[in-house]
Prior knowledge:
This protein is of the alpha+beta class.
Amino acid sequence: MSATQPDSDTVTSLAEVKARVIRYTAAGLLTWSLLLGGSLAWNIAKQREITLELATNTALANFNKDVAYRLWASSHGGVYVEPTEKTPPSPWMAHLPDRDLVANDGRRLTLMNPAYMLREMMQDHAELYGIKGRIVGIVALNPANLADPWEAEGIRQFANGSKDQLMEVSDIDGAPYMRLFKPFRMEASCQKCHGHLGFKDGEVRGGIGVSVPLAPYLAGEAGVVRTMETTHGALWVMGTLAIGWIARRGHSRSAANTRMTLAIRDSEKHYRAIVETSSDGFWMTDRRGRIIEVNNAYAARSGYSRRQLLGMSIPDLEAAQSGGEIATHIANVIAGRARRFETRHRTRDGEIWDVEVSTSYFPGGEGRLFVFLRDISERKQAERVLAESERRFREMAETIDQVFFIAELDYSRFHYISPAFRRLWGRDTEVLMADPGAWVDWLHPEDRDTVMAFVAEHVGAGEYESEFRVIRPDGSEAWLHAKSFEVASPPGGTPYVLGFHTDITQAKAVEAQLRDKNQALERSNADLEAYAYVASHDLREPLRNVTSFSTLLNRRLEGRLNDEEQEFVKIITDAANRMDCLVRDLLEVSRVGRGEHDMRPVSLSELAMSARGGLRSQMEAAKATIEIVSPMPVVMGNDEELYRVLLNLFGNALKYHGADPVRITVDCRADGPELWRITVADNGIGLELGKGYEERIFGLFQRLHQRDAYGGGTGIGLPICRKIVLRHGGRIWAESDGPGKGTRIVFTLPKLPD
């Protein structure tokens, strides 16, 4: 076996060689760079010294010139010249009697002392050549000759003998200058003009300074430095290339030697690593199929030890092929016609297991077959389970009464359609498989656009369903309920759709019949309510006559009727009044829902507080409290009807109470995502349990007590509440923990949509 990649030891050795070459190369580059960098820095420093030396020499030359001019002028006591605008008579020598003279020819002359001459020559020299000069003193007749701080410090050092000259590079008017400053001592020739200042001969009177512009010298220096940098850079590049070439050549030779040294060992280690760490089995056999090498993985799976396997041949383990077939197979492998195939092997315990075989033949020596054997028993079992599952799926899909299909996400292709398609759609599945878009033409013309728009809108939504009609080839219509599920494919695949079609033609017919019956029932209920309204209204007329004439008869026969006769008349009157109350309450029931007020947003909080205010006198009489313990919502409803519900519930709680002060609480909570749950609880007489009173009290004219008990009544309040709550889309019921433990009337109302 040949290694395709070096193992970790080889990689480590090559890495060490590479690292060593990199270290030497880096050291050489660093040394070369430091050497040339040091040389460049030294040369630049020396060039700077030369530049400053040239400027210094220029400054000294100009200083000596200025001193020579001053000495000449001093030796002659100054010079008389004709005054001009540039050279007027010096006001600082006005104390000299001979400052101004008239020549024999009548010309006016003025005295220029040495300082005056030197200052004017320095000014002219600066304008011509840029070299500035100054003669300054500690005490000056002319303020322009006062020393600046640097010059004053120099004069102080000259005076105490610590320095005899100063040199400095500084900026003057934004440009660099070399400044030279030397002492100016009092001499006998100076006493004529400056003797009155009190300086003695030999004392430091001030200083003479020269400032040489450095720009020309620095420009020359920059050119020289650029040349140095260019030559040194070129040398660095050539040296770097040479070092790199040497390093590359050395690395190539070292790496080649290392590879040659480790090649045999690496090949052996790779072979062992592949064989021993592979989870698949491995053989190496001769041309006759005798096993001459085997790994631990195959030994563990077969149940034999490696020692036992090394004495066996392929036929000893093969369970699917005969000896002749094995020999033929080996010949095909040697000829290169068989590389991978599946077979079955037998373990030491007799177990048969499925094997995938991958082989390679190497003709070196006597010839060797390298064989990798993978246990595929689980995969084969999974394939058998999958085949069985697919068989069951087809049996189910082909026997259910629904159409089942698998299609692309956009229905551009159908992968499977169950046989029920022929019964529901009346067409062969092959037609739709061949032409996936044909189903659109089979839809009912009135439903076609709606269905297509629905599909276009919901593709990619995950799950969706709809109902539509189809036209069969015989012209009959069928209603179908379609439900589709979008299923994510394995990574790399595309999503697909699983769909079901259910025949709901009969259900649609029953639905139409129920709709017709409901409409008829609604009409009947409306007629009954109208009849009850008219009957209740008309019945009150004769009852009022009975009540009126019985009362009138009682008045006219007053004093002439005995007690029994008066009792009879009273019974007639009370019965008529009670009948009138019943009819009036029946009329109230019939009026619920007949009002002209439309549904609108209504605040239950405001209605509850208004109902509580309307019962103030009854509350005071019963020492009652009505507490709204939680915020009340806004709902869609009829404010008059909902007000009546709360008023009736509060009134009942005030009516049916015991000896304790009445306490009524109103609580509101969410009852799921769509409803509010409102509870009106009291501490009154409660209800007996187990007798169905919780439902009975909502019956028309139903009372659980004697007619005149608890203030009387007709038993119409709670039925009206139920009718109103049902009309608003809710429901109402009663709860109690038993007699004397109070009653809770609970009703629900829909929430306002978001």
